[in-house]
Every structure is written in structure tokens, then in C-alpha cells.
Amino acid sequence: MDWGTELWDQCDIIDKHTQSGLDLVEKYVKFVKERTEIEQNYAKQLRNLTKKYSPKRGSKEEQECRFSNHQAFLDILNEMNDYTGQRELIAENMMINICIELTKYLQELKQERKMHLSEAKKAQQSLESTYKQLDNSKKRFEREWREAEKAAQCAEKTDQDLNATKADVEKAKQQAHMRTHIAEECKNDYASQLQKYNKEQNQFYFTDMPLVFNRLQDMDERRIKKLAHGYILFADTERHVMPIIGKCLEGMTRTGTNVNERNDSVVLIEQHKSGFERPGDVEFEDYSQGINRASSDSSLGTPKGPLELLGKNKNKTFRLFNKKSKALVPAPDSPPDRPSKSEFSCALFSPGTISDDTDSSQAIYTEFDDDFEEEELAAPIGQCTALYNFPGSSEGTISMQEGEVLSVVEEDKGDGWTRVRRNNRDEGYIPTSYATITLNK
């Protein structure tokens, strides 16, 4: 079935229907364009989100990536970044393959439809012009035939009039004959125009208009097919990136399964364990035995606790070497030569260091004083400016504020720590990456 045969008399319906089809294509293009804008905004927000939570180089978060749960979060951010790229690709492909393509095709359809409707209008105007000629010819024939009849009646009446001369009769007959001849000519012209119109009308309704309508039908069916392909592309554009999106999601899942809570605990232990033994029990001192003791301010007085000793000597540099034992070894990745509370406990209150013998106790405390001799302050070898705040909460470290300038007294030995000093003679270690360091030449 075709429009030219079945809809031969529905030109206005075909006109409205084809226009409605073009409007639908335009509406779909607008829909897809708004969808791409949503995808682009979504991708932009995801980019900003991953950037917001990604650690800066040298930051504390980046240093904590040795733990699997911290590293897993960074992997999640990386996978999300790749996922965002696929959302951007969806928007780009929809814009190119659907919006731009259909917009270009829509312009071609509009031109084609305009051309077909112009042909139909031209054929219709030609038929209307022929019909107008036919109508004029018909009216002229009708008018001239009435005049011929009147002239014939007049001639007959004159011929029967006894008072009419022979010349009057002859004149009336000539007039009737002339009118009859003119009427015959109009009749022939009318017949010719009628034949011409019928032929052109037949051409119009059986050839010209069916051809135009069938071309419009073909155009509309091609439009429908193209639009249907655009519908498919709408889904396929996203489906084509689904394997990569799936890999991103699988990567996120894999990062979660790779988190090893036990291993993270081991990493923390290996990073911060001191390696020293726990302090032994403090032995009971029996005052009932009448042991003579020196006054509280004497070097042989009752030994202070480790925290009191630290408070008393907080501005001094100590050497934790026992004359009869090996040097204490700092824990891995921690500031070198910084004593912990446990170290003082081990050095001062390990089992057997205190006894009821007055001479042996005196010897122990004398040795203790020798071990903590104050060293001379080393000359600065440079300066540093703090890039970040550092709390300095661990033993052996020193706090600093962003922008603070400190003196460098010992450069980084490869363990990531630099020893610095304030003007008030406080010294301690800071992370090398937390400061800009300039050494003297």
C-alpha cells in the first residue's frame, strides 16, 4: 500500500504528518543533547570529587599508603577517575553520533520535503489554471449560445413581420447566422478545454500527485528508520563502554578484597616497634631495715621516675649508652637517637638495678649521672622552613608550625628525618618532606 494510491485526496494530512515526523526528530535531538549535558555535569562532579579526596604529594595520607586499606582507597579514586572518563566518552559519542548526525540529516529532510511539496503545489496550481480556463470557456459558450438563440428568434420574428423590409429580414438572418457561428466556435473551444482539463486532471491524480506522495512516503520511512537507529545508538553508546565500566567496578571490588587487616597491623608494628624489652618489676625497698639515705636533693637520693627525669632534662641532649652494655638501637622509620619512655624504664628500672645494698645503689646512680652528660650544642649547618604543621608528639621529635624557620643541626641520613633546633635551644627531629631545607655551602 502506498500514499499515492490510498491517500490521493489527503494532501493536507500528508503535509501535517511529514511535518510532525520532522518535529519528532528535532525533539529527540534536544532530548539527547540534554542527556549529554547531564553526563558532562556528572563527569565534572566526579572529577572534582576524586580530586578533592586524592592526597597531595608528600602529604601524610600519601605516606600512609603502605597500609592496604589506605592504598585501597587510592585505588578506588583511580578507578573512579577511569569511570569518569567513560561517562565523558558517552556524552561525546552521543553528541557526535546522534545529535550532530541527526541535526544534519534533519536539514536534508526539510529541504527534500520542501521540494516535494513545491512540486505538488506547482502541479495543483497548473490544474487549477486549466480548470479556470475550462470554466471561462464554458461560460463563454453558454453566453454566446444564448445570444445565438436570441438572434435566431429575432430573425424569425423579423421574417414574419409584414412591415419589415427585405433588407431588415436579411440583416436579422445574417446576425443570427453570425451568432450561431460564434456559439459553435465557443462550443468547440469549450470541448477542447474540457478535454485538456480532463487529461491534466487525470495526470494530476493518477501520476503527478501519487509520485509526489510516494516520494514523501519514502522520505518519511527513511526518517523513521534513521530515527530508530538513533534510538538504538542511545543505548549502544552506553553499552559499548560497559565492559570498561565493568572493569572499573571490578577493580573497586578487587581493592576491597585485597585489604588485609592483619597485614596492616603487622606493618604498623614493624614501622613503630622499639625492639626493647618491657621494664621489669620495681623491687621492694625495705625502709624498716634502717637503710641510711641521703637527702632528696642528693644524687644518691631516691631515684626519680622516668617521666620526672625526662621533664628535668627536656632541654638537654642525652646519650643513652651504658658503660657496661651496647648502645640502644632506634626503631625502624623513627627519628634516630630519640629515647622512648620504655627506653628510660629499661635503662633505669630493669630487674636487679636496685638492691638493698647502700654501696651498690650509690654506684648505680653515679653511673646513671655519667651516662647522661650534656653534650655541647653543634653549630647549625643550614636552615629550613616548615611547609606543614607537625605536632612532634613522638619522643625525640619537635613540633613546628607552617612557615616557621628553624636551624638545621643534622641533615637527613637517608631515614627521612632531619634534626633541627629553635632559638631557645630546643632540638628534635622533623620529617624531611615537611620542610624546605637549605644547607650552608
From TrEMBL:
UniProt-listed SUPFAM superfamilies: BAR/IMD domain-like (SSF103657), SH3-domain (SSF50044)
One short Pfam name that applies is: FCH
Query: Where would you find this protein in the cell?
Result: Cell membrane; Cytoplasm, Cell cortex; Cytoplasm, Cytoskeleton; Lysosome
Query: Alphabetically, which GO biological process terms does the record hold?
Result: endocytosis
Q: Which UniProt keywords apply?
A: Cell membrane, Coiled coil, Cytoplasm, Cytoskeleton, Endocytosis, Lipid-binding, Lysosome, Membrane, SH3 domain
Kindly indicate whether the keyword Cell membrane belongs to this entry. yes
Q: Which residues form a coiled coil?
A: 106-203
> Which is one GO molecular function term here?
lipid binding
| Keyword Nucleus recorded | no
Q: Name all SH3 domain ranges.
A: 379-440
Gene Ontology CC annotation, any one: cytoskeleton
Q: What is its main location?
A: membrane
Give the top-rank taxon of the lineage listed in the UniProt record for this protein. Answer: Eukaryota
Start and end residues of each F-BAR domain:
1-264
Which family is this sequence assigned to? Belongs to the FNBP1 family.
The protein here is known as Cdc42-interacting protein 4 homolog
Q: Which organism is it from?
A: Sinocyclocheilus grahami (Dianchi golden-line fish)
Cite the source lineage: Eukaryota, Metazoa, Chordata, Craniata, Vertebrata
